[in-house]
């Protein structure tokens, strides 16, 4: 399992740890023991407890990638492998549709930072904020169906903020964007969208 072998707060190595009796499976609730970087949790072999609530120690089991560093794979063909922490963290995140927002409760469907042609489920960190035109600093700081963009894309946003929450939209449907002068702008450049994401757009004021 990935763990911090230096007493730090980030995963930097791999180690062998005992499985708990009757371990949890993929997408099942789990618990981390000692700390979030101890390498010890209640998930089964090849799984890791993620999306952890640090107040309770509870999270959800995700599969770890298989294959090789050059060609990582996920057991679920609808998941994408994310490699981080100098290849110490290798986790399979569920793929999703940003227009459907079809992730489990408490998760957002956002652009995959490791794959420009995909979207994946990410833990919702918006809390009580993250509504339309709220300020945001991180990609996961807006409610489901919204994304954090530069504030100049909406007249209703605070121009001094780092970011602002605006909706995803469907470029093939009539304009439903709520902001003054906003249109549904295509997510991908013309001719660059994967077939399953050709209709994905986001609300914004077009550039002059």
Low-confidence segments, given as residue ranges, are none
Instruction: Give the DSSP E fraction (strand runs of 2 or more residues).
Output: 25-35%
User: What is the number of E strands?
Assistant: 15
Q: Characterize the biggest β-sheet.
A: 4 strands, antiparallel
- Please, how many helices? 0
Provide the succession of SSEs. Answer: EEEEEEEEEEEEEEE
Rg, Å, rounded: 19 Å
For the structure shown, list the relevant keywords.
single chain, mainly beta, three-stranded antiparallel sheet, 208 residues, 0% helix, four-stranded antiparallel sheet
Question: What does this protein structure show overall?
Answer:
The chain has strands at 2-3, 13-14, 29-31, 47-53, 58-63, 66-67, 72-73, 79-84, 89-94, 107-111, 119-123, 146-149, 164-170, 183-186, 200-204. The relative contact order is 0.10. It has 208 residues and is mostly beta strands. It has no helices and 15 strands. 0% of the residues lie in helices and 32% in strands. The model has no long low-confidence stretch (mean pLDDT 93). The chain starts with a strand and ends with a strand. The strands form 6 sheets. It has a 4-stranded antiparallel sheet with strand order 12-13-15-14, with no helix packed on it. Strands 3-5-4 form a 3-stranded antiparallel sheet, with no helix packed on it. It is elongated and about 60 Å long. Strand 8 (79-84) and strand 9 (89-94) form a beta hairpin.
